[in-house]
């Protein structure tokens, strides 16, 4: 009996603790509800002053706010204001060195060449082997003009060791007949075969003086011997008797 009584006495305090815990746990929700009700009443009474605070947008934290700019004083001189303002670094181009001019190449002095006069014209000779005809109105290439003048490859040749009458300048019929005969004989001599022309002086507008020969026999001497020409400088009135 004594043990049962002691057991009943020990259980009594446990029941009291459980009641206290249950009573404390039941008051907490009511306290929260009461605080929320009071907050709602206060918010309702001061709604006009709370509404602008809720309408303000939250300002995002930007780089400008995160990195404060230096403060520029109003009373600072212009130079200090320029130093205080942030400046962006600009890459300054470095001057490029100018290329050096190429070294001057020395050029040798050119000595003037003196013109060497050609050798004596008598030593110059040329051999002709073309066919000739009488000169007409066209271009004179290889043709006979009169008893002492002909063209060889476009160059006017004057036989230097003789003088014969000219058809267009004849003073009488006898001189005109001699002029035609000399012209015909010179054409026959030129077409008889190769001949040699040796220079006898400088070329002039009137023609290049040449001594024309074949096998050492001059054409001028042959025409003189045949009575169709005369020596240079001799009188020609004998053809007009």
Automatic annotation (TrEMBL):
Source domain of life: Bacteria
The protein's name: Nuclease
Compositional bias (Basic residues): 1-20
Compositionally biased region (Basic and acidic residues): 64-77
InterPro entries: SNase_OB-fold_sf
Residue segments, region Disordered: 1-23, 58-95
